[in-house]
Structures are given as structure tokens and as C-alpha cells.
């Protein structure tokens, strides 16, 4: 019986990844360095532009859209250089909405319960969301134009690009070397940390774990994008005081 259990555990630990291809350690490290470089260059560029063009809101939108574009460019260059297909990034096996919807809504509901409990805990500790935070400044704008930009940025671009990058590429490669759940923790930490918001690190980390669960369950990024979009759209509307 012990031998059977050992064989079963070995088969689980050595299960092949669903992705057709994965990055080696050098390429994976290069991608992570590339992500950091993108953030640093855009941040320094934004600070420099503020000396000449003090319209902070416009510069924040420019930074946000350029970040997503740069991520997409990094993914596209990797696709061309490695001769990958989009399916190698996780875009395969479209899932019927009615099949995945119960899990998407269930995970979303659980994440919001956690967010509420987390916010109450921080409030009791005398902490509150920073009013000078870049996300507060962007999402808190409730004019028609800014709301439209926020919904495009947070509800469409970010889910598509970030799911391809953090779940399809980084998690999909990491799990080859360190196992599913270790890879889930690392990729979720990177995903949350790169938002550079200490107050929201834990909720985004939990969301990252939930998104890994969906990707692992359906072997496709489509449910991930649906959950990510739903989460961001509702958060955007709440921040703009529309719900």
C-alpha cells in the first residue's frame, strides 16, 4: 500500500504541464527582468515628463496604457523569436461560459468575502486605503471619458495581457521546475507585487492563486480573463461610485 501511495504521489509531482512549450530558466529570468525594466523605464519616464508637463492624470493614463502595450510587445517578441503559437501561452480549448460560470462566480464571491474581511481587519488596525495611490487616483475619476478609459484599461487590456503573461507564461513555465502550487505562489506574488500597492498586496495575491486554480482546472486562459475582467470592472465601478 505504501508503494502504491508513493507511486501515486510521484505521478502527481511529475505530471506533464498542459502547455506544449515552456521557457527554460534563462529565458524565464530574462522575461522577469524585462518586466522589471519596463516598469522602471516607464516610471522614470513619467517622473521626467512631470517636470515638463505637470498634467498628472494624463501621465498616469499614458503610463498605464504603455505598460500594457510593453507587456504585449514582450509577449509578441517572445512568440516570434521562439516560434510559438498562441496556444503555447494558454490560449486554447475555449470553454463554454455556462460550464465555467459557476466556478467563476463562486471564486469571485469568495474573493470578495475575503476582501471585506481583510478591509475590516485593516480598519480595526487603524489602516485605510491611501488616497494618493495611483489606482485610487485613476479609478476614482468618475467622468464619462475617464470611466471609459478605466473600463478599457482595467476590464479589457489588463486581463488579456496580464493573464497571458502571469498565468500562461510565467506560471506555465515555473510549474515545470518547481511544481504546481509552488509555481502558483511565486507567480501570484510576482503578479501582486508588480502592482506596487502594499495595501492591496494580499487581496491581489489571493486573486492570483484563484486565477491559477481556474487555469489549472480548465487548461485555458478564457475563464481567467472572464474572472479578471469581472473583478476589475466591478472594482472600477465601485471606485467611481457607480455601484
TrEMBL record:
Residue ranges annotated for the CAAX prenyl protease 2/Lysostaphin resistance protein A-like domain, each copy included: 146-234
InterPro entries assigned: Rce1/LyrA-like_dom
Protein name, UniProt field: CAAX amino terminal protease self-immunity
Keyword Ion transport belongs to the record: no
Protein species of origin: Desulfosporosinus acididurans
Coiled-coil blocks: none
Highest classification ranks of the organism: Bacteria, Bacillati, Bacillota, Clostridia, Eubacteriales
Residues spanning the membrane: 28-49, 61-79, 100-123, 143-161, 182-215
Keyword annotations: Hydrolase, Membrane, Protease, Transmembrane, Transmembrane helix
GO molecular function: endopeptidase activity
GO aspect biological process, one term: proteolysis
Keyword Transmembrane helix: yes
Amino acid at each position: 500500500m505504501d508503494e502504491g501511495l508513493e507511486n501515486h504521489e510521484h505521478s502527481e509531482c511529475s505530471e506533464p504541464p498542459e502547455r506544449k512549450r515552456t521557457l527554460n530558466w534563462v529565458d524565464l529570468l530574462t522575461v522577469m527582468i524585462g518586466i522589471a525594466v519596463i516598469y522602471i523605464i516607464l516610471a522614470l519616464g513619467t517622473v521626467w515628463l512631470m517636470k515638463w508637463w505637470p498634467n498628472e492624470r494624463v501621465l498616469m493614463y499614458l503610463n498605464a496604457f504603455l505598460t500594457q502595450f510593453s507587456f504585449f510587445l514582450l509577449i509578441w517578441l517572445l512568440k516570434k523569436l521562439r516560434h510559438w503559437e498562441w496556444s503555447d501561452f494558454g490560449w486554447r480549448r475555449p470553454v463554454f461560459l455556462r460550464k465555467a460560470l459557476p466556478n467563476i462566480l463562486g471564486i469571485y464571491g469568495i474573493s470578495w468575502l475575503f476582501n471585506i474581511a481583510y478591509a475590516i481587519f485593516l480598519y480595526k488596525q487603524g489602516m485605510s486605503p491611501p488616497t494618493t495611490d495611483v489606482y485610487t487616483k485613476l479609478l476614482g475619476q468618475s467622468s464619462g471619458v475617464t470611466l471609459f478609459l478605466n473600463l478599457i484599461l482595467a476590464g479589457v487590456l489588463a486581463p488579456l495581457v496580464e493573464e497571458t503573461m502571469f498565468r500562461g507564461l510565467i506560471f506555465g513555465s515555473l510549474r515545470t521546475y518547481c511544481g504546481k502550487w509552488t509555481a502558483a505562489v511565486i507567480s501570484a506574488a510576482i503578479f501582486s507585487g508588480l502592482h506596487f500597492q502594499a495595501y492591496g498586496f494580499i487581496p491581489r495575491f489571493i486573486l492570483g492563486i484563484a486565477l491559477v486554480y481556474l487555469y489549472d482546472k480548465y487548461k485555458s486562459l478564457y475563464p481567467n480573463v472572464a474572472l479578471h475582467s469581472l473583478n476589475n470592472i466591478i472594482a472600477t465601478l465601485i471606485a467611481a461610485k457607480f455601484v
